[in-house]
Amino acid sequence: MAFYQYQAKDSNGKIITDKIEAENQSSAVNILENKGYIITSIDEVKEEGQVLDTDLNLFNRRVSSETLSTFLIQLSIMIKCGVSLAEALQSLEHGEDNPTFKSCLEDLRSRVYNGASFSEALSHHMDIFDKFTVAMVRVGETGGVLEQVLVKLAASSKRRTALKGQIIGALAYPCVLLIVAGIVLLVLMGFAVPRFAELFTKAGLELPIATKILISVSNFVSTNWIAVLVAFVVLIVMIVYYALTESGRNNLVETSLKIPVLRDVSKRYFVVQIAESMGLLLQAGVPLRELLLAIENTMTIPTPKATVQKMKDYIDQGSNLKAALDNDPIFPPMAQKLIETGETTGTMDSMFNEIATYYDEQLNSAIKAALSIMEPCLIVIMAVLVGFIMIAVFIPLFKMSFIRPK
Length: 406
Description:
Elements (H helix, E strand, L loop, with lengths): L1 E8 L5 E8 L2 H10 L3 E8 L19 H16 L4 H10 L4 H15 L4 H5 L8 H13 L2 H58 L5 H15 L1 H20 L1 H11 L3 H24 L4 H11 L3 H15 L4 H4 L8 H13 L2 H53 L6
Antiparallel strand pairs: 1-2, 1-3
């Protein structure tokens, strides 16, 4: 799916400038012409939005995940109770305190009142709603099961919010450890080591190579500490900026699938996301091929995207999901067996939910296991660096203890 910026005239001659999401430009033109618009210009535009597999990205939403989860839950309840979509949006708009999200709800209500579909209205706020939510709502509207999809999305959103909290909590200690280590090293190199270097120079000692290297690095840091600090900050900013771009996130996540310590975490995360998405859509009555296409269109990480694409291709060929998942790099054998059982017994929706539940627990275990490996590794790295500094400093001090005053 892509976004197209267009300018057109409606039946009253009013000029409309807006964006539309479609599979290609021809589809976009057909949609607009079916609305009675006379198109004067249309061009593809790039949208920077959240995607299913970058739900691990925790930094680029202007509205919190908790707010979005609450919105979906409240909206699903109101629609389930017979309130129209436009009236539900109006009610939620009046009760919203976040000014950014309140403005978003106002625009959603306005577009729905003017005849736009809910998914089309959501597609104008991709900085707030992820592509997965928009795609699922579109599938729900097409299949006439919007209420069920919203209920499932609300539960899924709540679950993903909890997962984000777990990931943030898990990463807190290693990040604090790295920051403390960096500060300690800067203090040692910038202030402590130069004092020892001055002492060794006065003593006229022949310094070992480790001490010479340490003193050279220390002199550079203490002499150019502003440049070093600026370079350090710039490096951090560049890393964060790269991680926030879509290509950067894709590359980082794809790389994590190849790193032994992180591989199990990433694989189980994608199993949970794909299985949970399929389970909620199957329970809502969405046909298998349509939901696979919707999930595929929201994914940009090559490995899991290839998995979903292969599943869709096998369904198109009249085969089954088990055959598509043979030797798959994402789904483990146990998950494949459960999917095979679900296909045989006609209970794929419940099987996918079972897979999501089980591997969600396994994901927590994988995160703890990764941390249990990362934390000692960080401590060992710190110990090596501090040990090198101590050896480089104490060897000359030990030599000085044997120098007899004249």
